[in-house]
Amino acid sequence: MNKKQHAETEVVKDDIEILDYPGLRGFLRNITEWSFTLTFWAFWFYLFLPLINLLVWMLVGKTIFSTVIAQSGYLELLEILKKWGIAVVVAIATFTGWAYYNYWMFGRRNRRKRAIACLDEEIASFFHTSPTVINCMKKTKGMEIKVDGPKNPGVIKRLDKSGPQFC
Fold this sequence. Notes:
Blueprint: H1 3-7, E1 9-13, E2 16-20, H2 27-47, H3 49-60, H4 62-72, H5 74-107, H6 120-126, H7 131-139, E3 143-149, E4 152-158
Antiparallel strand pairs: 1-2, 3-4
C-alpha cells in the first residue's frame, strides 16, 4: 500500500462519500495550520493565567492565599467571573436550545435526494433522435449542433478528430 492509498480515507454514510487526502497538503499549509493552532492555544492559556495563579495560591496555603487575595484584587476578579459566568451559561443554554430545536424540526429528515438516472432511450425520445446518436454525443468532447426547432436537433457535427465526423 503506497502513501497516497494510505492517506485516502473514505467514509460512506447515507450515500454521501467523504474523501480526505491529508497527504496532499503542502508543507507550508501544514506549518501555517500548526502555527495558528499553537498561537491560539497559547492565547487561551494566557487568558486563564489569573485563574491558574489563584488555584496555585490556594494550594500553597490559606494564610498566604488570604494575604495575596486581599492585596491583589482577586476578589474583584471572582466577582466579575461570577457575573460573566452567568452570561456565558445563558448564552450556552440559548445556543444549545436553538441547536436542539433545529435538529428536532429539520435534522431528523434526510432531504438529500438522489436524481434518477436518465436512460439514453428517454433522452433520445425527448429530442426525437436515436439512442446511438445520444451515445455518440456522450463520447464526443466537442460538437457543433444546428438546431432545427424546439426539441429537434438537426445536424450534429463532431469537432474532435477521433471517430466519425457526424453522429
